[in-house]
Amino acid sequence: MNVQQLKDRSIEAWTWLIRQQKKLHTETVVGVHSEELERGRTRFLLTLSDYSEPLSVIAFETNKTESAFYGRIASGLNGIAPTPWFDWQDRDGGWVVVEEGGPFHSPATWSRLDLERVTERLAGVHSAWWGAEELKRIDLPKHPVVQSFDISTKANSSHPANQNSGGPQTGSLLSTMQSRGQAIPELMIAQVGFKMLKKLGGWPDLIEGVHLSALDHLLQEPAIMLQPLQHVPFTLLHGQPVSENWQINLMDKTQLVNWRNVCIGPAVCDLAIFIEDYIFWHTPRPDLHRTIPGSLEEMLVDGYLMNLGEHVALEGETRPGSSRHLRRHALPAAICWHTVSHWLPTFVNWFGRMPASRHSWEVIEDLNPESIKAWGLHELAAYRPVLGSIFHRFLNAYKLLINDQ
Fold first, then answer.
1. pLDDT digits (tens, 9 = 90+) for 281-323
2. What CA–CA distances, in Å, run from 216 to 3, 24, 172, 344?
């Protein structure tokens, strides 16, 4: 049996697969139907000789990282990831078959109980691999923030402020890194986005002088946001746990899908992305705010840390990896890292497609969303209503980091 036989809906190949994966040793597939879905996925419906209802599986092309995840890790996550049936790799990518979880409801309909399930499952992924030695033996990429640790640490050790040269101590960590050819790729493109944003005078009512100052400070001294994350125990990260990648079906089974960005790093990097995506890019049910004491973000953080603490030791008041450290230091650092490494490069893409003068920017700012779309700036029109809240959250996280310096 080979992968092409499965793609070609070979009855013999699918019969072999269900006997291997479902332990249906006497069953025979008598019919295979396929249906193309969005995002390059295919649904296969398998009709069995002794079953009235067909079995449904999802197959998709993917990268080598996700294929390896399903081949070596997914089955050990207690159902958090879809159950893998088959994974195949070549040097360019892979092809994976997983069980289909059934119809699921959109994040806009999630209840408080659904959110509690999501934070519980996210904590379950992280606790399963929290500080595990086996992470060192798994061939998975490191999160960009982890790759940045070594570069920043090497540059920081040679920074004038950390050497007893007796001379004047001037220059930022960024300038030291650049002079020695020690660049953090994510921050190099972020620097381009910052310069474009600064040239345009910021973004009125959304990103103003105080935000630009904070961004500039973090770009010049990235250790401010890297150090709080550096000593948090590493774990398995999904990499992009946004709401669309969570599936809650009608039986309340909650799974995390699309593991193309799976990597190793500090757990709060996943948490920061999920919270930003859910709160700002979706419209939570109005009754959520009426039934939750305090803010929705506080509820999500509390639920996550409570579930994480049930499985791993979050001991001590201030030690790295403690509950207080994760909340007070590591999570704000992850929020700042995400803002700098994601949003500033996003601005490069946006601003690179529009006139670069401040006057043109002011004209665009006065346009309504439909007129902005007419310029071809669909993302800008869609994101503008929530970017102010995102950068307000960023500024609060930045202030927490600076107060702890």
1. 776 666 665 555 558 889 999 999 999 988 887 765 556 668 8
2. 50, 61, 11, 11
Q: Where in the chain is the domain with CATH 3.30.200?
A: 1-100
Rounded to whole angstroms, how far apart are CA atoms 386 and 97? 37
Token reading at 145: 């923030």
Q: What is the CATH number of domain 1-100?
A: 3.30.200
With 0-12 / 13-18 / 19 or more C-beta atoms within 10 angstroms meaning exposed / middle / buried, residue 123 is buried
- pLDDT one-digit tens code per residue, 225-247: 999 998 889 999 999 999 999 99
296-309 helix and 112-128 helix, angle to the nearest 10 degrees: 40
